[in-house]
From TrEMBL:
Involved in the regulation of shoot development and salicylic acid (SA) homeostasis. Residues 206-305 form the Fe2OG dioxygenase domain. Gene3D superfamilies: B-lactam Antibiotic, Isopenicillin N Synthase, Chain. It is found in: Cytoplasm; Nucleus. One of its GO terms (cellular component) is nucleus. This is Fe2OG dioxygenase domain-containing protein. It comes from Arabis alpina. Keywords: Cytoplasm, Iron, Metal-binding, Nucleus, Oxidoreductase. It comes from the Eukaryota.
Length: 357
């Protein structure tokens, strides 16, 4: 039965990249968004109108200067649930190697990539397109390869063997982002007034999913999207982008273009941090626009607590005046939700909110 279902899925599978390669001059009907959901590219707020936070991590390890960096992180988390980081410690050679390996993977013949295709959200390695190709009403102009990445030794043998450099180059980037995630998590917890070792073991044993995304050039970018508005399920996401395309929603519900900064990485708070902070910090709602002239690549390193661990508001942040505003949830709960529901209609975290929020 599973093989039959996979065969049906394969028969209806058309990747965004194959459409671009075929030279289509119009976006197929199934990719056209309703007018109210279209990006309206010319009307989005850009960085001339708003200052998005860029944080230099160089002084994070200096005891005298660390409090200033922690304060900057606190302000960014409260204001946006998002910030960019420079001097983050991941070398440019590791970053360029990962981008090169991803480019080579997506340039492979379709038959080669289809060996990894699956519509199951539980597969540890999965090639696909859009969000949920089998059930969604509108498709999104994206191809991806997702794989579990921590501990690396447990998963790397399942990763693509072609191109030959993929495991080595993407593996180095995955290890580097995992270390960076640990430093950022400690800083974010400190900014909330929690001990830096809060959930330390759980963080160490947590999940890392690497989503490597390809957004091919699109003939009509004004009526399609690469990803719909959503927030990430985990604690935080470290994002590498090859060019501009990410937009975040600010606290006034305006879409803001995130600029491309050479050498910088993007940090996005996920639903687990919103729940853990009892709503002091909010997960950032974001989407991806597409471009008529260029192909954009991104690496979203999605970090979360262990698969079946229930996350709830930190007890230190709950009291009589500030009761728990969210129910508990796990990564497994999220996977079940996203496999059965359309996340463009209702965000997962909305199902966790209590009446007192």
């Amino acid at each position: 039965m599973e093989e039959a279902n996979k065969s049906v899925f394969n028969d209806c599978f058309t990747s965004a990249m194959s459409l671009t390669d075929s030279g289509v001059s119009r976006v197929p009907t199934r990719y056209i968004l309703p007018p109210s959901e279209r990006p309206m590219l010319g009307s989005s707020i850009d960085t001339d109108a708003i200052n998005l936070p860029v944080i230099d991590l160089f002084h994070l390890h200096n005891p005298l200067l660390r409090p200033r960096v922690i304060h900057e992180i606190e302000m960014a988390c409260k204001g946006f649930g998002f910030f960019q980081i420079i001097n983050h410690g991941i070398s440019s050679s590791v970053v360029k190697g990962a981008i090169d390996a991803a480019t080579r993977f997506f340039d492979l013949p379709a038959d080669e990539k289809m060996l990894l295709v699956s519509d199951s959200f539980h597969e540890p390695v999965r090639y696909g397109t859009s969000i949920n190709h089998s059930t969604e009403k509108v498709h999104y102009w994206r191809d991806f390869i997702k794989h579990y990445s921590h501990p690396l030794s447990k998963w790397i043998d399942l990763w693509p063997s072609n191109p030959l450099c993929y495991k080595e180059k993407v593996g180095k980037y995955a290890e580097a982002t995992h270390l960076l995630h640990k430093q950022l998590t400690e800083a974010i917890l400190e900014s909330l007034g929690l001990e830096t070792n809060y959930l330390q073991e759980e963080t160490k044993e947590g999940s890392q999913v690497m989503a490597v995304n390809c957004y091919p050039s699109c003939p009509e970018p004004e009526i399609a999207l690469g990803m719909p508005p959503h927030s990430d399920y985990g604690s935080l996401t470290i994002l590498l982008q090859s060019s501009q395309g990410l937009q975040i929603m600010d606290r006034n519900n305006n879409w803001v273009c995130v600029p491309y900064i050479e050498g910088a990485l993007i940090v996005q708070l996920g639903d687990q941090v919103e729940v853990m902070s009892n709503g002091i910090y909010k997960s950032v709602v974001h989407r991806v626009t597409v471009n008529k002239d260029i192909t954009r690549l991104s690496f979203a390193s999605l970090h979360s607590l262990p698969m079946d661990m229930k996350v709830s508001p930190a007890s230190k942040l709950v009291n009589e005046n500030n009761p728990a505003a969210y129910g508990e949830f796990s990564f497994s709960d999220f996977l079940e939700y996203v496999s059965r529901n359309d996340i463009t209609q209702k965000r997962f975290i909305e199902t966790l909110k209590k009446n007192n929020l």
